[in-house]
Amino acid sequence: MTEYLQSTFLGPEIGWFVATLALILLIALPLMLAVAMIIYVDRKIIAAVALRRGPNVVGPFGLLQSFADGLKVFLQETIIPSSANKGLFLLAPIITFTVALLAWAVIPFSEEMVLANINIGLLYILAISSLGVYGVVISGWASNSKYPFFSAMRAAAQMISYEVSIGFILISVVLFAGTFNLNEIIKAQEGHVFGVINAYGLNPLLFPMAVMFLISSMAETARAPFDLTEAESELVAGYQTEYSSMSFALFWLGEYANILLMCALNVILFWGGWLPPIDWEPLYAVPGIIWLFLKMFVVFFIFGLAWATVPRYRYDQLMRLGWKVFLPISLFWVFLVSGYVMIDKFGWPL
After folding, report:
1. For residues 313 and 311, what is the distance between their CA atoms, to the nearest angstrom?
2. CB atoms within 10 A of CB 4
3. 81, 250, 285, 342 - which has most CB atoms within 10 Å?
């Protein structure tokens, strides 16, 4: 599309700009629709576990419930506390929402369908995801209230703690794939297990990393059972306590966009991304984006089940898991994987 628009009367520069803008909208708008739908799916999963019906009134099967909630939030009054730093107070949810969208620029939906197929895509994801902590900390501080501030400090410590172990887990995947390019990481998983299965996750050496990455994804996105930053019984509503109307909605959209991103990363890094589950020629007739979305739904279903069934961690348990369990194991696994890769490549040392 870019080449076509550049060849028209628009010219190379304007054509490139229009094509890039169209691709951004092609990702951002469906993503917003997907966020609304997974909120609905989330509530249905929790309702099913609790033997309830969940949303079933607004629209057919309750499908329009998320849109009704969004309209209600949009029509509410935006209240800013009198003692808050108004500029930073309004900037914080914008940062959270924007950072959540930026990361999707390098996510490959299929072999050709990616906005920016850069060679350092994984490093870009790691850098962008680490910026999310700024929105949380700024919102807690700008509210000028002790409850949001306590929650923001908790959230910052939690996100930083699990990003460290996530970084070492990503190194293990990069050592196996030999690249930071997300498309190339997916292609390296083709026929990886016994020449049949397209996944790193079923590799005995990488399966523990797949499990740790899944759990770390929940902690990184403050998803239950790691939702200490929004523990109502302890911190009212966490760093979002003073927010209302669209500023609150931006936090909500950013949070679910991050959850979808982590589902996508779980699939891309360990479960073959847009590749079919089995390296069998007829399965490649199905578009890669369909396989990606189906796998993401499975991962999100696990997220939903964890929320509905697993009790919330205490904060000391949360931090102990990150620093005393995941960090040493992931660090040891980098040593293990690098040793295996060196032996596989150069043979046993004499």
Report:
1. 6
2. 10
3. 250
